[in-house]
Amino acid sequence: MHPARRAADGLVRARLLGRWSWPLSFDCSINRAAQRDALVSHRRLCTNRARCLNKEYASVNEGFFWTPEAEIGSLLKRHVKHQIRRFATSTKVNRNSRFDSLKTNDMEHFKSIVGAKGVIVDKDELVAANTDWMHKYQGHSQILLRPQTTQQVSEIITYCNSRNLAVVPQGGNTGLVGGSVPVFDEVIVNLGAMNKIIEFDEVSGILVCEAGCILENLDNFIGGKGFTMPLDLGAKGSCQIGGNVSTNAGGLRLLRYGSLHGNVLGLEVVLADGEVVNMLGTLVKDNTGYDMKQLFIGSEGTLGVVTKVSLLVPAKLGSVNTAFFACEDYTSCQNVLKEAKRQLGEILSAFEFIDRPALDMALTHLPGTRDPLPQSGKNFYLLIETTGSNETHDKEKLDAFLESTMEKGFVADGVVAQDSTQAASFWQIREGISEALGKAGAVYKYDFSLSPEHFYKIVEDLRDRLGSDAVVVGYGHLGDGNVHLNVSAREYKDELLEKVEPYVFEWVAKHKGSVSAEHGLGLMKPHALHYSKSAEAIALMERFKALLDPKGILNPYKVLPGTSKTVSTPASALNAESAVVV
Amino acid sequence: MKIMVAVKRVIDYAVKIRVKADKSGVETTNVKMAMNPFCEIALEEALRLREAGHAKEVVVVSMGGPQCAETLRTGLAMGADRAIHVSTTELLHPLTVAKLLRGLAESEKPNMLLLGKQAIDDDANQTGQMIAGLLHWPQGTFASKVAMEKGSDSVVVEREVDGGLESLKLQLPAVITADLRLNQPRYATLPNIMKAKKKPISQVTPEQLGVKISRDLEIVEVIEPPKRKAGVMVASVDELLDKLKNEARVI
C-alpha cells in the first residue's frame, strides 16, 4: 500500500482531523450526507486515474507543494484552513442529488419536441455518445437528443431546467478532457443534426452556419469559393464548429490566423433557462456594449449552448511551402523560430515541434509514414509551413530563410516538400503522433503553455524524473508556446501517475504557464485550474456560472471546481468553513 | 553513361481542377504547379542508377515557358547534375515533344532516356513510345523495376502489363518510361537545394534543334465530367427489383 494511504488509514483511527475522514480503501466518501455516488468508470484507466474532485485545493500561492511522497506528518503541518488533495485509485465524483433522473413522461415530452427520430435510446448509439474519443471516460446517459432547430434546443433546455435534469451539450465528441460526455445520466443534447450553412458572403469572407457543421465540410465548402477555415486540427473530419467555439479550439494554424476569440463575429446561444440570445452579428467591428459572446467562447458548454456561429474566414492562398528540419539542440529550435518570424514574416503559417521520441512513435505505429530525414540522427525536428499569394515571392523568402538558417548553423539538416503529396507526408507524421501514442499503449496526456525557454525543459525534467519507467514525449505548437507532453507506458500504473502529477502542474505553475493550453478543463482538469488562475479569478468565474446557470444543469462536474456542489454560493468553494468534500 | 530524364511541369496532383468558363482548358493561373509524379519517379531511378555506379551524369530536360525553370530547379535539387530548358511558349503535344527530344538526344548523346509513363494533365502516354520510334531505340515502358549489370551494355526492365509482369532485356541506348511502383522519390534536402542554385541550366530553342512546332492536335472543348447523380434509397427488396427492371433495365 502506498505510504500516504497507509498513513491516512492511521489517521482515520486517530480521528485527528474530525471534520473529514481519510480514505479507507478506494473510497473517498467523505461527505456524510446521504448522496448517491456513482463511480465514473474508465475503460482504460480504471484502476488509476484519480483524485477526488473535491473542493480542496492547496493554494500554490501559499507555497504549498503536495507531493505523493509527502509524509502525513508534514500534511498535518498544513494550516487547517488550507485544503488538501488526496489520491484515491479511481476517479470518484458524486452525483449531485439535486438533479432528477429521467422518467417516462420526460421521454414522451422530448419526443414531442424533437420528434421520434430526434430521441435516441438505441444501446449502441448511446454507448458511442457516452464514451469520449480517448476511451477514458464513460457516462451512463439513457437518452440522446438530436434537435434540428434552435427552437427545439431552447424547448429542451427549458424543460430540463424546470425538471432539474442535467444536460451535456455534445458536438463531434472529439474532446480530450472528457468535457463532451456525461459523467452520470445527464441528458445528451447532440447538435449534429443542425448542420446547415446559413449564408456565406464571398466579398467579406463571413460565414454564418449552425453549430453542428463539421469543420472539414465547412472548409471544403468555403474552399470551393477561395476561402479557408481559420482553424485546422487533426479532428477536423469529426469535430463540429459549435464544439470548436465552445472549447476555443486552437490547432495548427493559430499562429497565422489567431484564436477563435478574434475570428468569431457572432453567436447564437441558448442559456440554461432556455432563453435564446441572438448575438449573431456579421460585423468585423462592433463596439456596442459588452462583448458577451466572448464568455461563451471557451466556456465548454457550461454557460450556454452554442447553436449558430458567425465566423470571419481568411482567403485561401495558393502558394504553400512545407519544410522539415532537424536541429542539433533545443536552443537552435528557438533560434529558427526567431529567424522564421523575422525572415518569413507574414507568410509563416505553421511552426510545429517534434522531438525524437515523438517522431519514432509516429514512424513505428503509423502505417505508411516515411522518415523525411533518415540520416540526420538528431533529436529535435521542426515542421514549418508558409502560405502566401505569390509563389515567386514566397520561394525567394523561403530560400533566403533556408540559406541564413543553414549558414548560422541553426539547422543541421532539412528537406523541403516539392509537391503537395510530400507536404502531406510531413503533416501525416505531425498530425498522427496522438494516434500513434494511443496505439503504443497507455498514455498520460498533458497540454501546457510555457514560455519558449521552458517549453522543452519540462519534458527533460519529467524524463529525468521518470527514468526508465516510461517514455516521455514532447511535441507541439512551438510557435504558440504550446507543448503537448505525453507519457507513454505499457500500462496505467498508480505509481507512475503519482510521479507525474502533481509534479507537472506544479512545474507549470512555478513557471507561470497554463495547465491547459488548448484542450480545456472538461472533467479532467478542474482540480488543476488553481495552478494557472488566481483564486479571485476563479471566484469571478463561479459568479458568472451562478448568474447564467443557477441550477448548474449545463455540463455539470466540469470546468469549474465548484460546480458539483449543491449550493448557490459558488464562492464558498474556497471558504474553508463551508467546504464540502464530494 | 549519361542518362537524360525528361520532366514536365503540371498542375499539382492534389489540386482540385476547375474548367475555364470558355471551355478551352483548365484553370492554371494561381494554381499550384509541380513536377509530374511519374517524371519524379523517372528522375529518382536515374539518380539511383548513378549512385549505383552505372551512370556518370544525369541531365534533366524540360520544355515550355520560363516557369519550367522552377521544375528544373526541383530536378537539380533532387540531385541531377545539369539541366536543359527548351524554351517555347507554344502548346506542345507528345509528337512535338518527341521530336524535340530527338534533337536533344542527337546533340547530347545519352545512353538512356528515362521518362514518366504519362503526364497527369493529358494522360497521353505517348511521348516515350514516340521517341523510341523516332530514335529507333528499344523501349521498356511501364517499368516497375530497372536492373543493370555492372559494365554491361544492356538493361533488364520489368514491366507491369495487364497479364502480370513482363521482363525485357534491352540493348542500350534505350528508352524507359517509369510506372508508379518503380520507386519512391527522395525529398529534396536543404544542402542539395542550395547546391542546385549553382548548377547550370542551359537554354535551347526549338529552332536550334531543327524542329518546327506545328499544331497537330486541336483542342475542341474541355468540359467537366457529368456530375454523379445521387443514389436513391429504396424501401424494400421489391422496390429494388422494380427499379432494376424498369428504370435501370439491367434485369
UniProtKB/TrEMBL annotation, chain A:
Signal peptide: none
Enzyme Commission number, as recorded: 1.1.99.39
GO molecular function, one term: (R)-2-hydroxyglutarate dehydrogenase activity
One Pfam family cited in the UniProt record for this chain: FAD_binding_4
Residue ranges occupied by any FAD-binding PCMH-type domain in the UniProt entry: 137-316
Required cofactor(s): FAD
UniProt catalytic activity: (R)-2-hydroxyglutarate + A = 2-oxoglutarate + AH2
Protein's UniProt keywords contain Transmembrane: no
PROSITE patterns listed in its UniProt record: FAD_PCMH
One cellular-component annotation, GO: mitochondrion
InterPro entries (UniProt xref): FAD-bd_oxidored_4_C, FAD-bd_PCMH, FAD-bd_PCMH-like_sf, FAD-bd_PCMH_sub1, FAD-bd_PCMH_sub2, FAD-linked_Oxase-like_C, FAD-oxidored/transferase_4, Oxid_FAD_bind_N
This protein's UniProt keywords: FAD, Flavoprotein, Oxidoreductase
Domain of life: Eukaryota
Gene3D superfamilies given in the database record: 3.30.465.10, 3.30.70.2190, 3.30.70.2740, Uridine Diphospho-n-acetylenolpyruvylglucosamine Reductase, domain 2 (3.30.43.10), Vanillyl-alcohol Oxidase, Chain A, domain 4 (1.10.45.10)
Family of the protein in this entry: Belongs to the FAD-binding oxidoreductase/transferase type 4 family.
Protein name: D-2-hydroxyglutarate dehydrogenase
Organism: Physcomitrium patens (Spreading-leaved earth moss)
Chain's gene name: LOC112278127
TrEMBL record, chain B:
Highest taxon above the source species: Eukaryota
Biological process terms in GO annotation: fatty acid beta-oxidation using acyl-CoA dehydrogenase
GO molecular function: electron transfer activity
Electron transfer flavoprotein alpha/beta-subunit N-terminal domain location: 23-213
Places the protein is found: Mitochondrion matrix
Assigned GO CC terms: mitochondrial matrix; mitochondrion
PROSITE patterns according to UniProt: ETF_BETA
Keywords: Electron transport, Mitochondrion, Transport
SMART domains (alphabetical): ETF
Major location category of this protein: mitochondrion
Coiled coil stretches, renumbered: none
Signal peptide as annotated in the record: none
Assembly behavior: Heterodimer of an alpha and a beta subunit.
Protein family (similarity comment): Belongs to the ETF beta-subunit/FixA family.
Task of the protein: The electron transfer flavoprotein serves as a specific electron acceptor for several dehydrogenases, including five acyl-CoA dehydrogenases, glutaryl-CoA and sarcosine dehydrogenase. It transfers the electrons to the main mitochondrial respiratory chain via ETF-ubiquinone oxidoreductase (ETF dehydrogenase).
The protein's name in its UniProt record: Electron transfer flavoprotein subunit beta
Organism: Physcomitrium patens (Spreading-leaved earth moss)
Lineage: Eukaryota, Viridiplantae, Streptophyta, Embryophyta, Bryophyta
Name of the coding gene: LOC112293076
